[in-house]
């Protein structure tokens, strides 16, 4: 049995669920309450010594880091979402890593400082916010450009790189990051957000936040 430990507002957790859904895997989703500090409990630290989500437990095989998780799940299913062919796989890895290091980190910073800092009652880091916004201006065109000529980020076929980008951009509206000028990205996103793997997880990131904020 596969268990995904995650949090509804955690883009990396949603990413693991998107991929598991797309692969048609049967899994149990266990919510870890980050606000209550459940991720620092002894039980969770046994799964992830760093106290983070997501983590999976696949019949006793425990794995953390969302990109390692999606690579593992897709490879286990021998899915074209993570191609076998060396160079195709390298291109998928390239885009997956690029998005995590540059786009997800930048948007995460903006989200933290525009939204969660207030919820968590921590000081807004104005410098991190402005660096996050500049990085988005620099790197969003890098992922928008290729989508003009090809349907998916790493080529003509859907891959884990798309799931990573989709999850990373999920909080854009909540973080007041306007993606409407990125026409290719917007078209690509609308397509993927309408698919079952996404709607099985949630309607939108903003809906989840609104529900949790009551
Ligand atoms: N690089 C990690 C990031 C994991 C991560 O930072 N998760 C956040 C939620 S989005 C978390 O667990 N935060 C709780 C904490 O840091 O205490 C991944 O992709 O899995």
Question: Which descriptors apply to this entry?
Answer:
214 residues; alpha+beta; Glutaredoxin; Glutathione S-transferase Yfyf (Class Pi), Chain A, domain 2; 2 domains; four-stranded mixed sheet; 10 helices; 4 strands; 57% helix; globular; binds glutathione
Outline the structure in words:
The protein starts with a strand and ends with a helix. Strands 2-1-3-4 form a 4-stranded mixed beta sheet, covered by helices on one side. α1 packs antiparallel against α7, α4 (86-120) packs antiparallel against α5 (126-144) and α4 (86-120) packs parallel to α7. The protein has 10 helices and 4 strands. It is an alpha+beta fold and 214 residues long. The protein folds into 2 domains: 2-76, Glutaredoxin (3-Layer(aba) Sandwich), CATH 3.40.30.10; 86-208, Glutathione S-transferase Yfyf (Class Pi), Chain A, domain 2 (Up-down Bundle), CATH 1.20.1050. The longest helix is centred in the middle third of the chain and has 35 residues, at 86-120. Helix content is 57%, strand content 8%. β1 (2-6), α1 (11-22) and β2 (27-31) form a beta-alpha-beta unit. The model has no long low-confidence stretch (mean pLDDT 97). Bound molecules: glutathione. Glutathione (GSH) binds at residues 7, 10, 12, 34, 39, 51-54, 65-66.
